[in-house]
Specification:
Helix content is 26%, strand content 23%. It has 447 residues and is of the alpha/beta class. An 8-stranded mixed β-sheet has the order 13-12-11-10-14-19-23-24. A 7-stranded parallel β-sheet has the order 4-3-2-1-5-7-9. A 3-stranded mixed β-sheet has the order 16-15-22, with helices on one face.
Length: 447
């Protein structure tokens, strides 16, 4: 096949591509940085002609043009497989809705449960000499979306880094129906600022638990980034990376000489991830970097793959935890904040790993933005409507600025006592009273 000739045959304008979408269609709009720009602008022009179009995507870095109008929800529904701040705000207006699912299950869910999609549009790198378009920083579940779609459109963008991997990271021109082009800059998340005192205290406790040769998974947020910063300044060495999301902290760790992957039991010497999001520095680092391995999420987040890696260290955030050890990392009451992602997979996988540990970190308190009142993130029970992300049977280490506890194997009263011990001192008596009412309080002889 003459790839260049085939490219010219399939090259159309964004406006022509947008005409393919019909009312009632299911349309995959990429995922995170694969969300198309030119196609989105063209589709927005057709808003008045279209109704009941279901758009699928996730972790938006910018507000799509199709969702900017006040009446957008009369024409389009955004179905999010994972949440960003933009989608959180869209959920409050009934324009977007979250799809509750473990992130690792997405490829199978697309292939078996959605089963059929009308159009798949995703941003890719330019075509290489073999006729392949690379998905760039999000291997994730995109091949599964392509496989079930009637029409596949790639939006070629020279700014997309070419991310190397093992499988399901590229699509060949023979499997593409149309090509459009754009040159928009990718969305970036600015590098994290200096960690707070709370972040530093939590990070210090976690870093003390990490052995040389461990393999890391870091979630997004201040505390995981603080851990990364502290590791970069530590004496730790020969660390590995196997993570859902590749973040700036891993670049800093690599540049500090901490990452080699020499002790990984699988994908040795390679930093494995499902998608990346961060600064331009991160994108430049990943571009054509053979030490990094993009892979579909059902591989990276497979708890049995995680379990194969000795000394696996999983570090994630939470919104709240209750005295039973139930972790809420998705909602505050009924308000959607984030998604399930792969947190539970990594919590379980890390525990299955020989020498592995999972850490859920959170500040002990927050200030109510309306009253200014100090409120505990450690609760008697999760607030009404709060979604449980990690069940109490799976929770391992919990860390606040007041200490660290390992809940594995603890009875209900032991859990309550341990968690109250790392709550804010001013709020402990109230928690004790609540624990007594729930019949899960028995002060130990150690106190």
């Amino acid at each position: 096949m003459d790839f260049e000739q085939e490219y010219k045959k399939k090259l159309i304008s964004a406006d022509e591509a947008a005409k393919i979408v019909k009312s009632g269609d299911l349309v995959q709009m990429g995922f995170t940085e694969n969300t198309p720009f030119a196609f989105d602008r063209a589709l927005a022009k057709r808003t008045d002609e279209l109704h009941d179009v279901n758009l699928y995507g996730g972790i938006l870095g910018h507000l799509p043009e199709v969702l900017k109008r006040e009446d957008a929800k009369e024409h389009f529904t955004w179905n999010s497989v994972h949440m960003s701040g933009i989608e959180r705000r869209l959920c409050a207006t009934d324009t977007a809705f979250y799809m509750p699912i473990k992130y690792s299950e997405l490829p199978r869910y697309y292939r078996e449960n959605i089963g059929h999609m009308n159009v798949c549009v995703l941003m890719t790198t330019p075509m290489d000499k073999h006729g392949y378009f690379n998905f760039g920083i999000s291997a994730s579940h995109l091949m599964a979306a392509i496989e079930i779609s009637d029409v596949v459109i790639v939006e070629v963008n020279k700014n997309m880094p070419r991310c190397l991997g093992g499988f399901e990271t590229d699509v060949n021109i023979k499997d593409v129906d149309y090509i459009i082009e754009s040159d928009d800059a990718l969305d970036v998340i600015p590098a994290a600022g200096e960690p707070s005192d709370v972040d530093k205290k939590v990070a210090e406790m976690i870093v003390n638990e990490i052995p040389n040769g461990a393999c890391l998974q870091l979630g997004i947020g201040g505390m995981p980034n603080a851990v990364g910063k502290m590791i970069a300044e530590s004496d730790l060495k020969d660390l590995g990376v196997h993570t859902e999301m590749y973040v700036d902290a891993f670049v800093d760790l690599t540049e500090a000489g901490k990452i080699t992957g020499a002790h990984k039991n699988i994908d040795r010497y390679r930093q494995t991830y499902a998608f990346a999001s961060g600064s331009q520095k991160l994108y430049d680092f990943l571009d054509d970097n053979p030490s990094c391995m993009a892979a579909p999420v059902n591989y990276t987040n497979d708890m049995y793959n995680i379990a194969k890696i000795d000394n696996f260290i999983s570090i994630n955030n939470a919104i709240n935890i209750d005295l039973y050890g139930q972790v809420g990392a998705e909602t505050a009451g009924m308000r959607q904040i984030s998604g399930a992602g792969g947190q539970l997979d990594f919590v379980i996988g890390a525990y299955l790993s020989k020498g592995g540990k999972s850490f859920i970190c959170l500040s002990s308190t927050f200030k109510d933005k309306h009253t200014g009142e100090l409120k505990s993130r450690i609760l008697p029970t999760l607030d009404n409507g709060t979604v449980v992300t990690d069940t109490r049977a799976n929770t391992m280490y919990i860390v606040t600025e007041y200490g660290m506890v390992n809940l594995k194997g603890m009875t209900t009263w032991q859990r309550a006592e341990a968690l109250i011990g790392i709550a804010h001192p001013d709020l402990r008596d109230e928690l004790i009273a609540d624990a007594e009412k729930a019949h899960i309080w028995r002060k130990s002889n150690k106190r």
